[in-house]
Amino acid sequence: MHDGHAEPLSPFKRIFLEDSTQCSLNEKLADEFRGSGGSASRSSVKINLICEFKNHTIQDISISSGNVPDQSAAEAILEHIRADDLILRDLGYFATDVLEGTRDREAFYLSRLPKGINIYLSDHKDAVPVNMPDLLNEKFPFRSETDSDVYIGENKMPCRLIAYRLPEEIVGLRRGKARRTAAKKGRTPSRDYLKWLGFGFYITNVARDIWSAEVIGTVYRLRWQVELIFKSWKSLLNIHILKGTRSERVKCLIYGRLIAVTVMTMCYGYAFRYAAERFRREVSIYKLFNWLKRNRRLFEAVHTESSDTLFNDMEKNIHRFCKQKRTRKTTLRLIEEQIGYLDSFSENEIGKMRTKYPFADITTLISDALSPFVIFTGVVFAGIIFFFRYLRQLEKNKIPLFNSQY
């Protein structure tokens, strides 16, 4: 029987996805719910979600002030995981001690690798960190992907490091975004960082006989499912609209909506498994949530304790909730067919990035073309031209270059 999950995912008992989202609050609540600063609201609440993908259930939800970094919540997931579980999380949760704790529990992780983490080719005490982009460009200039055994961090944790040489358009868009982000802070991204953005770096402790290097980046795309969950919460349930100036009221709104979200997610998990087992189809969370809201179906089922009737109606209408068949493959289908990461970039995906950052690749091409030597030469040349024009103006107005009285 087809269980609705791609083959690369079948070795794992549970797959945990974790991410957070922020909701702006009235500024009067800044003492209790401080915002993240900058151009963001002075007051905001952060909702941290751990969900389990295979059963589509919520494992844990917590709230905190908006200025609390994701990394402070990184360790909390260790109390949930067991042997043969898999963790996929955003880069903000990266912590080598948590990865080591995951490995010690005989569980697995897949994570992007942030710049700034030391990478070693040996665990010898005298080993020195390597510059991976330079090493790859020197040793494997024509290799689109590499799979290496490395050691990372102060404790030299062993892991697989998979590096993808990204398509030029993607690199241009990433570098353009990095430059704009740095410019807002009055900075300029370093050349080392720009070279780093030319690659996608991933680390994992999953064995090669389970995941090939080609498919690892594709599997990581699964993490975006939690982003879709947040979008559905906001667009369909208005979970981010929290009006009020009293913390008690805001907390009641948050917890009340999170209870509703939890119940609706339970319904979604049931529908997803039913559609996968019976029809090998994927259920749209948007369609199902809308159906549950319509005619107060969920409210009536809870109020009259008629959940059996609700689930029977869901089964009868299951085709209405399924995603439409389309040319562009879903993330789950890409994983199931084990499409290589570099082959999984669609024109539609690149087009969306280009629309969001229309001048990114242009500015990148210009900036990359201008080496420090070229920039220096240009400045000197411009200075010479300006000086001769200045002399011409002095001569025209019969003004001596140096005043003789000095």
Write the layout of secondary structure elements.
Blueprint: E1 14-24, E2 44-52, E3 57-65, E4 85-89, H1 96-104, E5 108-112, E6 119-120, H2 132-139, E7 145-152, E8 157-165, H3 168-184, H4 191-196, E9 199-204, H5 213-220, H6 225-237, H7 247-279, H8 285-293, H9 297-303, H10 307-316, H11 318-321, H12 331-336, H13 347-356, H14 360-369, H15 372-396
Parallel strand pairs: 1-4, 4-5
Antiparallel strand pairs: 1-2, 2-3, 5-9, 6-7, 7-8, 8-9
Helix pairs in contact: 3-14, 6-8, 7-8, 9-10
Widest sheet, order of strands: 3-2-1-4-5-9-8-7-6
Query: Gyration radius, to the nearest Å?
Result: 27 Å
Extract low-pLDDT stretches. 1-5, 363-372
Mind telling me the CATH class of the largest domain? Alpha Beta
| Main sheet summary | 9 strands, mixed
Mean pLDDT over the residues? 87
Compute the number of helices.
15
- Approximate helicity band: 40-55%
Distance between the termini: 98 Å
Structural class: alpha+beta
Order of helices and strands: EEEEHEEHEEHHEHHHHHHHHHHH
How many strands in all?
9
Task: Indicate the CATH architecture of the largest domain.
Answer: Alpha-Beta Complex
Under CATH, the topology of the largest domain can be stated as: Transposase Inhibitor Protein From Tn5, Chain A, domain 1
Pfam family, one: DDE_Tnp_1
Domain Transposase IS4-like: 12-261
Protein name: Transposase IS4-like domain-containing protein
Family: Belongs to the transposase 11 family.
